[in-house]
Give the backbone structure.
Amino acid sequence: MTHEGSGHADFGTHRAALQQAVAGAQGAGAPSLLAAAMSYAVFPGGHRIRPQLCLAVARACGDGDPAAADAAAAAIELLHCASLVHDDLPCFDDAGLRRGKPSVHVEFGSPIAVLTGDALIVLAFEALAQGAARDPSRMSILLSTIAQSVGSPMALSRDRPGNARRRYR
């Protein structure tokens, strides 16, 4: 991805990183139903506020590596999409709709929805690793920051303090 002028002026570069990440997971040998469910979960998507914030922070800090910033923004959005897929499952919120269309488990079934959410989590960290590969010294802090933000039981249940006690006993 090339960045001209002011870097991420239109904040659209993370969309290309998202498309590239999902397309990479849908390559030869990928189960077609899972590939379709991943696309369904990620595209067209919501307002993409989280990746926009990530890119705004990167730009404010000098954005020394636009590819790494794009990868981090895409990873954050993939993790968000994964959390929505999992959260909509019958064992959690049992939401029938997401972003105005049937949720992934309604459209593809619960087993595929679980695999889709899990695949998006793995894909997020793969996209981050590929995007930051040019500067391995940054990889540790990027992985740690994103993992700590979404990976602990408290982060996973941050929006539901009452539910955290039930879910993580």
User: Anything to note?
Assistant: The first strand starts at residue 97 and ends at 98. The chain has nine helices and two strands. The longest helix spans residues 66-88. The chain has one domain: 13-135.
